[in-house]
Amino acid sequence: MLKNRQMRLFLGVKVRGYLLALLGFLVMLWNLGLPSLWQDEAATIAAANRPLPSLLQLVQHIDIVHGTYYAFMHFWGDAFGFTPLALRLPSAMAVGLSIGLLYALALKLGFGQKVATWSAIVFLALPRTDMAGSEARSNALTATLAIALVYAFIWALETGAKRFRWLAFIAVAMLSIYVFMFSVLILAAFATYLLIKRRGQLLNFLVSSTISIGLAAPIFYFGYKERGQVGWITKKPIWQYLWEAVIGVDYNRNLALAGICILLAAFAIYKRASLLVLLWATLPSAILIAVSILAQPYFVDHYLTFTTGGTAILIASGISLLKLPRLEAASRLNLSFQLLALLAVVALSISSLAVSRQPSAKGTQWAAISDAIRVNSSQGDGILLPDAVNPAARALDLMIVAYAPEYAGRIDLTLTAKPAETTRLFGRRSLEADAVEPKSNRVLLITDPAEKDTVFRKLPNWMVTGFKQAKSIAFDSAEIIIFDRIK
């Protein structure tokens, strides 16, 4: 009878992890394809939707740090297409997998079912998880691999563990680095933990980490060569780095949610939270901030999505330690108090989830603009983009890449080389004034509204003399001006 009870308990623990993972995936699916694609997702399409030889050439010039993800998305796109929903589905799946792994990791760390369950729920509630799980970038996968790497690390450290477990650690560490180079910073957290707690295992770890980093050497080599592509990242005062690290990384500037979660995490730290979890949640951010201040700035808040699992466990630990005065820790009133705190975290996250699933949640209206172009043009009609003299004009080029099916059959009048024909993420274009006259009777000019007068002064002569403005469709970030041929 005892054996049967233990078996039911074991199965119950396993099933709960699977159910939490499924819940996370289903939450991510809600309106997943509704928000318009944005610049970084357009970069994913531009890289992944090209032949593999072209992709290999591309990453030797730009974006090597995302090369593994692009290769995966190449095969995924071949199988399922490049619609917003199809593109984002792997990220949603990664969130579900992260939740299941985080639940298992919390159990492995000795937290018990309650904290393990709450860690999974908090992870799902954090806006950074939703942001990562709802876009076609590698951020969600970096979080998954980080959780798996912490699990592999603990597994390898177990008393009596076989040496082959370090091989598993090496494999996961190497894959983490190939998916995102800065994941290597987790190794610093592990090293610090071993120096403080378990020096006897330090040699095994150092050897395994050295092998992992050595196998990932191409990422570091080309990543360093391509460092100029992050030249847009500027140095900031330390207080701004700290603000972004504390408020931006996991809470996406949801101040009410950040307030309660930071207090809960601080309470867990005060009560002597797991040192490994604390280092995982904080040390990579500290290192990246230090490098950004002392050398070249690399700090971008979403680069640290891989620390989100550690933050979730800290918050859940803080909730589990809450206790009403003069009550024993295991009392039902204390449990109700803790559940109320968990409910507050979930409730405060709902607004962020709702906002993130709006059509313009990513800061673009590309879907609506592209649909208007499709409706107001026919195959053979010309599409004219202005010279890429500012970010708004360059974004229009990305929009055509992101929503290529909407432009099928239309003639892009300034495109001289498609993305796959170059070692750039996007194609090459001639100047607006040099656009070749199409045979069609309609040309659609897409422009930044603020630059419309400047763009009009650069129109090619054939358009000035042979076409007249027939209609204008205005959006916040772009304007479609329809020209018909004068008959």
Structural notes for this entry:
This protein has 487 residues and is an alpha/beta fold. It folds into two domains: 2-356, no CATH class; 366-485. Helix content is 61%, strand content 6%. It has a five-stranded mixed β-sheet with strand order 2-1-5-7-6. α9 (164-179) packs across α11 (202-215) and α14 packs antiparallel against α17 (332-356). It starts with a helix and ends with a strand. The mean pLDDT is 91.
N-to-C SSE string, H for helix and E for strand: HHHHHHHHHHHHHHHHHHEHEEEEHHEE
- What topology, given as strand order, has the largest sheet? 2-1-5-7-6
State the low-pLDDT regions, or none.
none
Number of helices in the DSSP assignment:
21
Main β sheet profile: 5 strands, mixed
- Overall spatial form: elongated
Q: What is the strand tally?
A: 7
Q: Calculate Rg over CA atoms.
A: 26 Å
Q: Kindly give the count of domains.
A: 2
Structural class: alpha/beta
Helix share of residues?
A: 55-70%
The proportion of residues in beta strands is 5-15%
Mean pLDDT: 91
Question: How far is it from the N-terminal to the C-terminal residue, by CA?
Answer: 91 Å
Give the SSE map:
Elements: H1 2-29, H2 39-48, H3 52-59, H4 67-80, H5 84-108, H6 112-125, H7 127-133, H8 139-157, H9 164-179, H10 185-197, H11 202-215, H12 217-225, H13 238-251, H14 255-270, H15 275-294, H16 308-320, H17 332-356, H18 366-375, E1 382-384, H19 391-402, E2 411-412, E3 415-417, E4 428-429, E5 442-447, H20 452-457, H21 461-466, E6 467-474, E7 479-485
Helix pairs in contact: 1-5, 1-6, 2-4, 2-19, 3-4, 5-6, 5-7, 5-8, 6-16, 6-17, 8-9, 9-11, 10-11, 10-15, 13-14, 14-16, 14-17, 15-16
